[in-house]
Design goal:
181 residues, mainly alpha, 71% helix
């Protein structure tokens, strides 16, 4: 008869010390703030460019159709097509936003090891402090955000929400003054 040994196998799992956990959580928050703020800045620029492009396209089409003496119906049809383009652009912007997020996250993770000593600078903590001073009913910018909260922050930015605008300006100033490798 075989004996069954019910003793658990000894595993050699490397334990993370509390100080290391705090450091990792701090670094994660810092990298999330940098990533999310960069995404919001890029989306604001992209959105502004998209609106300008669409408005310019409508004006150019109106000028061209008027100069070619096209009918008013043809001009309206072209405007409808341009409006459709304007509705499609936000979806493309969302897709670009997620692609940018993936790209930035990948770059930050690849550079995290080399950034380690740089991230020990206490100036990086100021970004976390700025974010934690504000509440918008959305997950904080210190978290790894998905599309919905990012779009919520973009909406606040587009609406020129005074509190969000103030926080965003503080974050941009903070990023501008961070040490560089």
């Amino acid at each position: 008869m075989a004996t069954v040994n019910h003793m658990p196998k000894k595993t050699t799992k490397q334990k993370i010390k509390p100080a290391e956990q705090n450091t990792q959580a701090r670094e994660t928050k810092i990298l999330n703030v940098i990533c999310n703020t960069s995404l919001l800045l890029m989306s604001a620029v992209t959105e502004a460019f998209s609106e300008m492009f669409t408005k310019l396209s409508k004006e150019m089409i109106t000028t061209i159709t008027t100069s070619l003496d096209n009918s008013e119906d043809a001009t309206k049809d072209i405007h409808k097509k341009t409006d459709s383009l304007q509705k499609e652009l936000p979806q493309q912007i969302r897709e670009q936003l997620l692609a940018m997020k993936t790209d930035i996250t990948t770059q930050l993770q690849e550079k995290k090891e080399t950034l380690g000593t740089l991230l020990t600078d206490p100036r990086f903590d100021d970004g976390i402090t700025i974010v934690e001073r504000y509440e918008f009913g959305l997950p904080a910018l210190t978290q790894d955000l998905d599309e919905r909260p990012l779009l919520g922050y973009i909406a606040l930015l587009q609406a020129n929400d005074p509190r969000f605008t103030t926080m965003f300006q503080e974050l941009l100033e903070w990023m501008k003054n961070l040490p560089h490798p």
